[in-house]
Amino acid sequence: MRKVFIQTLIEIAEHDRRVVLLTADLGFMVLEPFVKAYPDRFYNIGVAEANMMGIATGMAEAGYIPFVYSIATFASMRAYEQLRDGPILHHLPVRVAGIGGGFEYGNSGVTHYSLEDIGIMRTQPGLQTIVPADPAQTVSAVQQTYQLPGPIYYRIGKNDNLTVPGLNGRFRLNTVETIGDGRDLLILATGAISAEAVKAAESLAQQGVSCTVAVVSTLQPDSTAELAALLGGFSTAITVEAHFINGGLGSLVAETIAENGINCRLIRCGVRSMPSGVSGSEAYMNQLYELTAEHIVQKSLAHLQTTKVHLA
């Protein structure tokens, strides 16, 4: 998604001279097209994320729309205080691009695993948090939101070849995009792991379980009313996220169920412990932490069978 994100930024910058790009000495082999197109609107601040956020805040105050680019762990945590005290409290249009959610940085190890960024950003009411599921939705999301007032955090995946079947690039702010119309189970997913959720739904359909997949791309402000209406039509829902189960999509859905008194059983599929002493490819880590279509199917069937036994 990184490359289409930058290409979209180039196209926007052609028509909007307010757009500038800042990086903390990251993004090699990705940012060069923007640098070539607009060398006077690109700033490599060096390994100094807090300073980068301060500079972006000043540029936004001066009338620019700065995009701040870094690996998601660094983008969300190293400059968090500066993000809070600058763009958020002053309602300035700084756009933070956090690259590589969940285990996407694989062999780089735990320091690069972004498992809490959505939760961190969701605690700030003044910060819109947008998590596209694939490259096509990334394009739609950036095009539709870059001019919005106030700051935005985009969680952008690394895989430029990923496609979430049935999504077709659809994105509407504060709206849940659904795939399928099954009534047995609601699968809610966010970000690149949504592709695994769709695979799981297809596998479950072959076993007689009809599913609706809901891709939730706006995590803050949330689409509570729409989520509540959707959840109200199901007795069982499962959330799927490449994130800790606390603070992200699972928490958002649990809050929605509790606050609206919805009679829907929730299963949360996500990371439950900090990876320690082990690293590997994204595929290996997703397998280890049960973030694959096969694991989603197993958990869904187990809980649905328990529900049937309970009802019987």
Secondary-structure map with pairings?
Blueprint: H1 2-15, E1 19-23, H2 32-37, E2 42-44, H3 49-61, E3 65-71, H4 72-77, H5 80-88, E4 95-99, H6 117-122, E5 128-130, H7 135-145, E6 152-156, E7 176-179, E8 185-189, H8 194-206, E9 211-216, E10 218-220, H9 224-231, E11 236-244, H10 249-260, E12 265-271, H11 282-288, H12 293-311
Parallel strand pairs: 1-2, 1-3, 3-4, 4-6, 5-6, 8-9, 8-11, 11-12
Antiparallel strand pairs: 5-10, 7-9
Helix pairs in contact: 1-7, 3-5, 8-12, 9-10
In short:
By secondary structure, this protein is α/β, with parallel strands linked by helices.
Give a written overview of the molecule.
- By secondary structure, this protein is an alpha/beta fold.
- It folds into two domains: 2-156, Rossmann fold (3-Layer(aba) Sandwich), CATH 3.40.50; 176-311, Rossmann fold.
- 40% of the residues lie in helices and 20% in strands.
- It has helices at residues 2-15, 32-37, 49-61, 72-77, 80-88, 117-122, 135-145, 194-206, 224-231, 249-260, 282-288, 293-311, and strands at residues 19-23, 42-44, 65-71, 95-99, 128-130, 152-156, 176-179, 185-189, 211-216, 218-220, 236-244, 265-271.
- It has a seven-stranded mixed sheet with strand order 2-1-3-4-6-5-10, sandwiched between helices. The chain has a five-stranded mixed sheet with strand order 7-9-8-11-12, sandwiched between helices.
- Helix 9 crosses helix 10 (249-260).
Features of this protein?
globular; single chain; 312 residues; 20% strand; alpha/beta; 5-stranded mixed sheet; 2 domains; Rossmann fold; 12 strands; 12 helices
